[in-house]
Write a structure and sequence with these properties.
This protein is 42% helix and 15% strand. By secondary structure, the protein is α/β, with parallel strands linked by helices. It has a single domain, classed as 3-Layer(aba) Sandwich (Rossmann fold). The protein has a 7-stranded parallel beta sheet, with helices on both faces.
């Protein structure tokens, strides 16, 4: 068996939250293919997380599984500690964990609102605070948050989702400015409508009011490819940005 060629992320360690399926899984596999060691994270489906870790290892990479709710600071700290123990540090953080809901605003409970917002915003807060000291120590880091097109074009019955994703844009910009001097970049990827498996809690897939000019949904691997690029040396001059990967559904202003 031929020895695997070292990739551009060889020696780096990445935590990818929500990586048991969909975009998170594709991201874990893409970063591993470039040489990064992966912490596969899930909150419930340990079997699925173990399967992803097995895929990474079958391809010649390294992976561990850490079950953790990103809104639980103690669980996040334990996950980062496990990454440092297994791989020597944390270089890449992909804040992908989220929960999608669908509820008319006047029927939405505060608990439903809080759960969606807290996973994206509180989760990113805990994760970044836990990982940044290790990145500063190494003098290199990449943080990538996963936003969404809905907060840019508006979608009914998903106010909690829109607020959580819009908040990530501000979070990304603030952390990017504060830690740029440490050779740490922070960017947000805003996916369009992606062909993912949706849990029952997400409700039926809404019909977009704007159609993609390319005439199809995106694939998880296409979002993962952007995450991968932002982690490469070639992307070192990109920080504080929201990068739209949506087939032209949103062209900005």
């Amino acid at each position: 068996m031929a020895q695997k060629k070292a990739g551009p992320l060889a020696g780096k360690a990445a935590i990818v939250t929500g990586s048991a399926r969909n975009i998170g899984r594709a991201t874990a596999l893409a970063l591993a293919a470039d040489g990064a060691s992966i912490v596969v994270n899930a909150v419930q489906d340990k079997a699925a997380a173990k399967k992803v870790a097995g895929e990474v290892e079958a391809a010649g990479g390294k992976a561990i599984v850490q079950m953790a709710d990103v809104t639980d600071r103690k669980a996040v700290d334990a996950m980062v500690k496990a990454a440092v123990k297994a791989f020597g540090g944390v270089d890449i953080l992909v804040c992908n964990a989220s929960q999608r809901g669908q509820k008319p605003f006047l029927e939405m409970t505060f608990e439903e609102w809080s759960k969606v917002v807290n996973i994206s915003l509180d989760g990113s807060f805990h994760l970044a605070q836990a990982c940044l000291p290790h990145m500063i120590k190494r003098g290199w880091g990449r943080i990538i948050t996963l936003g969404g097109i809905s907060c840019h074009i508006g979608t009914p019955n998903r106010v909690h989702n829109l607020v959580s994703k819009a908040g990530l844009v501000g979070f990304t910009r603030g952390v990017a400015m504060e830690f740029a001097a440490h050779n740490i970049t922070v960017n947000c990827i805003s996916p369009g409508f992606i062909n993912t498996a949706r849990p029952a809690s997400a409700g039926a897939r809404p019909t977009p009011k704007v159609q993609s000019p390319v005439g199809r949904m995106g694939e998880p691997a296409e979002i993962a490819a952007m995450v991968r690029y932002l982690c490469t040396p070639e992307a070192a001059y990109i920080t504080g940005q929201t990068l739209h990967v949506n087939g032209g559904m949103y062209l900005g202003s």
